[in-house]
Design a protein that fits this description.
The complex is a heterodimer.
Chain A lengths: L1 H7 L20 H15 L16 H13 L2
Chain B lengths: L1 H20 L5 H16 L6 H17 L1 H5 L1 H29 L15 H16 L9 H9 L12 H9 L6 H34 L7 H31 L17 H5 L4 H18 L3 H19 L3 H19 L1 H10 L6 H15 L1 H7 L4 H12 L8 H9 L4 H21 L6 H5 L5 H18 L13
The chains are: A mainly alpha, B mainly alpha.
Chain lengths: ~70, ~475
Amino acid sequence: MQELVLKQNPGLKELRPEQRLFSDLHYDSLKIMELIISIENTFGIEIRGDDLARSNIETLAGLASLVEERIKNR
Amino acid sequence: MIAELYKFVLIFGFTFLALQLLPSSFRWTALLFSSYWLFINCDPGYWWLVPALSLLIYVTGLLLAGSHCTENQKLRRCVFFAGVFLTLTPLLGFKYSAFLAQDGLWSARKIILPLGISFYTFQAVAYLNDVYKKRITAYRHPGMVALYVAFFPHLLAGPIVRAEDLIPQLMNPKKVTLDDGLSGTRLIFFGLFKKFAVSTHLEIFANTIHASPEFFHGFPLLLAAVLFRYQLYFDLSGYSDIAVGASRIFGITLPKNFNNPFASTSPGDHWRRWHLTLVSWFRDLVYMPLCRLMPSRSGIAAAVLLTLACVGLWHGASWNWILFGLINGVFLIIDSVSKPWRVRLVSRLHIERYPGVLKVFSVVTTFILMLIPVIAGRSDTPARFLSNLQSAFLIRRDYLNLSAFEAYFNTGESSFLFFSAIALTVGVEMLNYLLSDESEGSLRKNWLEYSLAVRAPIYAVAALLFIAFGNMEKFHFYYFDF
């Protein structure tokens, strides 16, 4: 997942799990959807609409645990 | 109206009694019987559509879960799309045939639609989608699928509920406590109040202006757009409150449909607070599939526009409502892409030190912005939309146009009722705010802790206001025709 985020943000050198997508990494809702779809395609999972609640995707760590859960339930 | 109300009360009472008397494994039969009983009464011409759609999704669900489909993904996809197409056919036929048959209508024609057709159709499509995506297994009990589509408290105007949330509850409605009964009754009353004491009066004014906008200019046009927004809100949220309250009395929990939408701080925030179950439906069944088809940034922006255009089409099969959706879509995209520089601007101007001022500014600007698509939706031609927009927002001589109000009151409408409706709008909005998460629901949490001596006079005042202002000449909600 780190690779996908870095690919979207070529200016970034490193990522920390506590970084917030919206305020620290300046994601907007279009860019977050781009990331979600590339995550879905990379891991062969489907993120549900309900998963996109702000609390789930607030930080990189939150998003990573959501992806892990979806991989587990695949 | 009174006859319809009696019918509803009779069916509601029968259902409540039956649920108390029947063993839990048979309670669903009472709910299904009452749902069809009410629907046959409300819509004698088209009631059969509900069982027909139920049968269709029941059979399609079983086919999707069957071994032929699980072994052959191509067949599975075909069965799914055929099922969705057939489920949508009555809705498309009734609502959009006139629009599609001609070059396109600018303003929606009044077509008599089967009551609540889009709501139960959307539920049926959601069922097929959830079975196809394997979020639920196809239900083998035809009665449960029939009841999922027909469950009467929310049949005509939502909330739209997903099968995984509703069917387990329908199979085994929980034991109703006194608290459930009281809070459900309060919600029903609050919903009736919003609809019949407030929305109905706002509708008369908004309709008068929108029916002949050539006679009005300036402030009355702006006020008509504001009142139309509140009319829609009180109408739909009123129905939702009644549906949620009635279901609670039957031991079924339905999701809430609104979260204080007029406190939105941006267009994006507005759509996270307005008609939540419909927005979730469009997000899951239109927006996300479109994003998967067009995963680039511009593709996702196009998906936003297309989804909101569909939301507009849902409001009415005409270009003015498509424009309503597209304007909302453009606002959402601008809101999203402009966020980083807005944050920088706020930081550079040091406004973040005044969060209250910032919030009020955001709420007011969002409120004003959201009037623009509403003006588009209620304009009968593109030229009329532009002139209404200019007239409503461009302050010039005689902007207040008070003579328009005189003309309106000369038509026989009572100025007292008009100003009372506005006062009630403000009152109900304040109450909504106190009950919402925004104020941490302090009133909602503490309400039952107040003694009956405090609560009883408040109920009495509310009942008196309802008797004084309730206009129950027609028992019809705006969204029944959607």
